[in-house]
Amino acid sequence: MPYFLSNLKQRGCLEQVSITVGIIGSRKLSNFKEQVDVEKGWDIFSPNLTIYGFDADRIACEQMNSTLAAQGINWSEKHFPVALWSSTNESEIYITRDPGCISLHRPSEEYRKRFTSNVKAMELISTEIIKTVTLDSFCKAEAINEIDVLQIDVQGGELQVLEGATEIIELSTLAIIAEVEFMELYAGQPLFGDVDAHLRKQGFTLLDLANIQRDQRRDIPIASGYHPGPLSWADSFYFRDLISDRFNTSLKTPSTILKLACIADAMNFPDYALEILEYLTVHYGSDKQYNFAEVIIESLSQIPQLLALPEIVEKGFESLPIIAKMRNYI
Predict the structure, then answer these.
(1) 229 in helix, strand or coil?
(2) Confidence band for 41, pLDDT divided at 50, 70 and 90
(3) Is the pTM above the cut of 0.90?
(4) d(Cα 87, Cα 159) in Å, to the nearest integer?
(5) What is the pLDDT of residues 66-104, one digit of tens each?
(6) Helix (H) or strand (E) holding 213
């Protein structure tokens, strides 16, 4: 749940913030009605919100676009039937029993023999030849100049997508959510370490691994309580650290730093969002539009679990160091 966005919205602070989200593998969500509900997590930025979806499934994209048109949404959203990859080429796509496991990497037979998860879902049914394009080339062709948040779930091909998106990422991207694997579910696929090394070179910091999944070894009836099966996959959350002295990028402007704070809060990283809002207030607070002292104080005063902390109950809300610090900027 966002901690600061509602307050920022009420004060008109979001009028200067526009957010563009790119969802690569957009049909992967269980059904489109749920997808719309998920995307409404961003709708606080409406009408300054743009969502681009990308998926190789043309029919799914057409259905999603039709559903959106019928709903009369107050943000811009379109799904494109393209397969994003590291190059513009013709590639073989592997059709599996479960459409959610379709990949440009062949399902690993060794994995299916040794482990129990997704055995039927990843059964190979057929192959097709499709055309792939890079996100960079697509953005140039469609005059897309920025994508603030990338969400990537393409069954083992996340690194290849990132390799084809280096320009748009360098120019604009502030946060990336990518599914990562710790074992080869697909033959020869890049693993978490490969994705992590690539994104760190591009100036991103890993803040969390969520929805961590483990697997079970086939026909092995025991597992340790300390180590309950090997890691299989997880969702990784990467952010730019625009307030760190270690990174020098053209994105380090107060307006973009504010956008980063809003994205962090929308993605349930309130601690990072608060750190950024405090930074903006201290370094740019002489400009009223970047003075968030009142937003910080009011928002924190509305968090029940914070106010219920024993030290706050005993000493009072004003005893928080950040509250005392922000009082100086009101």
Answers:
(1) coil
(2) confident
(3) yes
(4) 12
(5) 999 999 899 999 999 999 999 999 999 999 999 999 999
(6) strand 204-214
The partner residues of 199 in beta bridges, in order of sequence, read none
Beta bridge partners of 176: 150, 238
User: What is Dmax (Cα atoms) for the chain?
Assistant: 67
**DSSP letter at 217?**
B
Residue 55: strand, helix, or coil? coil
DSSP string, 84-144: E-SSSEEEEEEEESSGGG-BSSPBPHHHHHHB-TTTTTT-EEEEEEEEEE-HHHHHHHHT-
Q: Report whether 296 contacts 285 (CB < 8 A).
A: no
What type of residue sits at position 229? G
Q: pLDDT band for position 194 (50/70/90)?
A: very high
For the stretch 153-164, pLDDT in tens is: 999 999 999 999
CATH number of 17-269: 3.40.50.150
